[in-house]
């Protein structure tokens, strides 16, 4: 759900928005977006991905993974704040993790589609993440049980690679990680 643009939001104003509750807040290109809390299936898929990546990182300390809600502040002027479902920050970029949020460009962002967020995740956030220089972006579709992977090349995302439920997902950002997607999508 997008609100009417009345004025540009500041970081300080954004930080006064209520935490928790029935909505998650994001500001992209000066517009405030509110999304309802996700469904149990959405959360189960997020949890399965978080568990796969988190377990891998315990044995391979390449960085940290964070689950929503965890704001990523790409810039303060203009204010660009997203709340991806999962965020991976490598050790090389650990300095962007602050006590309140992530201030800068993470290495990998994951969005699990919901009916209320699908168009935004596929267009608005894809554009924001590409412009901001996020090296890798996964769009997880619970309905089709697919993961579309976008990798930055020459400052642009190449066409997305699609992985299906019977495939295994990996990432050059996490060498050695393999995620059987049959374990991600609940029956």
Automatic annotation (TrEMBL):
<keyword id="KW-0540">Nuclease</keyword>
<dbReference type="GO" id="GO:0004519">
    <property type="term" value="F:endonuclease activity"/>
</dbReference>
<protein>
    <submittedName>
        <fullName>Endonuclease, Uma2 family (Restriction endonuclease fold)</fullName>
    </submittedName>
</protein>
<keyword id="KW-0255">Endonuclease</keyword>
<dbReference type="InterPro" id="IPR012296">
    <property type="entry name" value="Nuclease_put_TT1808"/>
</dbReference>
<dbReference type="Pfam" id="PF05685">
    <property type="entry name" value="Uma2"/>
</dbReference>
<keyword id="KW-0378">Hydrolase</keyword>
<dbReference type="InterPro" id="IPR008538">
    <property type="entry name" value="Uma2"/>
</dbReference>
<feature type="domain" description="Putative restriction endonuclease">
    <location>
        <begin position="12"/>
        <end position="181"/>
    </location>
</feature>
<dbReference type="InterPro" id="IPR011335">
    <property type="entry name" value="Restrct_endonuc-II-like"/>
</dbReference>
């Amino acid at each position: 759900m997008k609100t009417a643009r009345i004025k540009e939001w500041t970081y300080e104003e954004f930080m006064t928005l209520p935490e928790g509750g029935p909505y998650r807040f994001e500001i992209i290109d000066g517009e405030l977006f509110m999304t309802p809390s996700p469904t149990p299936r959405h959360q189960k898929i997020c949890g399965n991905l978080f568990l796969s990546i988190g377990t891998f990182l315990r044995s391979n300390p390449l960085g940290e993974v964070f689950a929503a809600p965890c704001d990523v502040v790409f810039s303060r002027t203009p204010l660009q704040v997203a709340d991806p479902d999962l965020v991976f920050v490598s050790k090389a970029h650990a300095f962007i993790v602050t006590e309140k949020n992530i201030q800068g460009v993470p290495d990998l962002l994951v969005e699990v589609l919901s009916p209320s967020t699908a168009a935004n995740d596929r267009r608005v956030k894809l554009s924001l993440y590409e412009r901001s220089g996020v090296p890798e972006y996964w769009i997880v579709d619970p309905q089709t049980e697919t993961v579309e992977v976008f990798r930055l090349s020459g400052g642009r995302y190449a066409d997305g690679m699609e992985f299906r439920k019977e495939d295994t997902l990996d990432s050059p950002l996490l060498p050695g990680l393999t995620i059987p997607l049959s374990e991600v999508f609940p029956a």
